[in-house]
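Lab channel / #folding
Pinned by the channel admin:
"Please post every new chain as: sequence first, then the structure tokens as a reply. Keep commentary short and put observations after the output so the thread stays searchable."

First post following the new format, from NK:
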Amino acid sequence: MLRMSISMLFLSKKNRLTVKISSLLIIFLVYNSVVTFAGDKKMLRVGVIQIVSHEALDADQRGFEKALASAGFKEGVHVTYDRQNAQGDMNKANAIAQGFIDAKVDLIHSIATPTTQAVVNITKHIPVVFSSITDPVSAGIVPEDSAAGKKTGTNVTGVSDQWPVSLQMETYVKFVPNAKKWGTIYNPAETNSVIHIKAIREAARRLGLELLEVTIASRKEVEQAASDLSGKVEAITITSDNTTVAEFDTIVKICNEKKIPLFAGDVDSVARGAITAYGLDYFLVGYSAGKKAALVLKGVNPGDIPWGPVEKFSLVINVNAAKVQGVTIPQELLKIADKVIK
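Reply from TO:
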């Protein structure tokens, strides 16, 4: 009886050891499969193409990446970025776009009109999320029958940055009510600029202002254009023209020296030296585009995601810039400002 009990005890321990070994083996196999799966899991690749580098467009990309990270797509863990800048060169933009196609990236974030046109002209399959585009319809980026808030039915969606040009001009004249001659600088090769210039012309006409336009073809022409205007106008306003905004610091320098009030359309340019802007926060433009990109990376067809504008505008005032440029800001404008830079 004792021998049988010892035998049963021995078998019991053996069974327990067998169970323990089996359990450890199962855990090892499960762990190994998980690790293998994680190692084999595809790292998503996002190609970023930007026409030039300036505060607004740089803020756009930061907002885009922040939105993706908030949606669970963290850089280096779930997604990698191939950030490219065309430096205002459309030949380079086309080459960058083709490089993304050849690399078969999972998604393209195209910032500004010219670069987005370069992308959509050569790919109808890779998802494209655009941002900082004034009028995607006129630019041929979305179908003509795809109004804001509607689905495109293509591989493209995104966020436009249409400015409230009439409201901007109505606001700016309150800062310099005696200024009747206004100037602006833009690159006619940028579709977004042409659209805004038409709106500025109409607003100037309605407000009884004379608008002097200077056109440029590259960044190196901005300084001369600003110098030419400084002796002929009483105020300068800059549109969403990327070529010009990329040299905004140069314009600020000339306006400060000549005491010419300078106005911008994007709030990021106010900190750089404009007196004021009633416009968009481009970080939020990019953030809105990033939320759409997150849906695409989760499997939603971009053509099923409506594109649309960012409709939140802010009045930002730079008190120091106004002082340097010889402008006294009315107190009623300071009171309604969303942000005052001193």
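NK: The chain has twelve helices and 13 strands.
TO: also worth noting, Residues 205 and 235 are 15 Å apart (CA to CA).
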